[in-house]
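pls design
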């Protein structure tokens, strides 16, 4: 069986798209076919108003083992451009996850290793089983991070801890990452997927316009001076006020009912 990214709309959810990393026998090791499928799936979701949130998870109670070392050894015998193109495609998928106007939740069971860890970090929110492990062991095999792993960790953790995680390449538990604010919610083993879907369904009831604009503001915050960000907040607020979602949201609040966004 080949590596693939499975897409599904679960029966228990009206508005959630579930993307499942699947590569039997390799603990869902990554492959360029997955990257291409992920880019296509996110593009389709972006154009589908019935999709309000996305969950990224792994098959068989394991998130992702990262890159396949056997495939990397094979690529050493090829022109360096082959590996560069593969990493560029992974980067496009990572960028698409970050650019999605819809909330993306990672649901991690087992472990997220290497670029699998990068994928989990690229999501907006992270749900993990309390026995899940996260590791970037690139340095232990003479490699360096890809998929934005070093960027995400440097953003999420103090410099000293990010350095320790990347240089030592030792696993760090979901409970520790929860304490550090990297993991949003912990679940019992085998419950991360269902918890993520339930959360996605809840988030799907929020104004799509407000959700997209808030994600955009958060994404721009670290690269903007406060003065520029205040202008961006003003412009987004005014545009949101005059959007149909604000009319529904404010009216529903005043009428003491749940809003229904279309």
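designed seq:
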């Amino acid at each position: 069986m080949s590596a693939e990214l499975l897409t599904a709309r679960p029966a228990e959810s009206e508005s959630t798209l579930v993307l499942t990393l699947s590569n039997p026998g390799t603990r869902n090791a990554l492959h360029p076919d997955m990257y291409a499928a992920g880019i296509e799936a996110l593009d389709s979701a972006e154009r589908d108003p019935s999709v309000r949130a996305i969950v990224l998870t792994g098959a068989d109670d394991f998130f992702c083992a990262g890159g396949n070392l056997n495939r990397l050894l094979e690529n050493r015998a090829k022109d360096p451009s082959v590996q560069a193109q593969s990493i560029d495609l992974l980067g496009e998928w990572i960028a698409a996850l970050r650019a999605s106007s819809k909330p993306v939740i990672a649901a991690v069971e087992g472990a997220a290793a290497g670029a699998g860890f990068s994928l989990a970090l690229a999501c907006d929110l992270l749900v993990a089983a309390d026995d899940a492990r996260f590791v970037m062991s690139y340095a232990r095999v003479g490699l360096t991070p890809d998929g934005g792993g070093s960027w995400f960790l440097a953003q999420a953790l103090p410099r000293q801890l990010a350095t320790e995680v990347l240089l030592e390449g030792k696993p760090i538990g979901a409970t520790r990452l929860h304490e550090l604010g990297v993991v949003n919610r912990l679940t019992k083993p085998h419950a991360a997927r269902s918890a993520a879907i339930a959360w996605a369904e809840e988030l799907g009831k929020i104004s799509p316009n407000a959700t997209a604009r808030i994600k955009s503001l958060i994404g721009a915050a670290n690269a903007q001076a406060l003065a520029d960000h205040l202008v961006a907040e003003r412009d987004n607020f005014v545009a949101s006020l005059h959007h149909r979602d604000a009319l529904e949201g404010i009216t529903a609040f005043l009428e003491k009912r749940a809003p229904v966004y279309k």
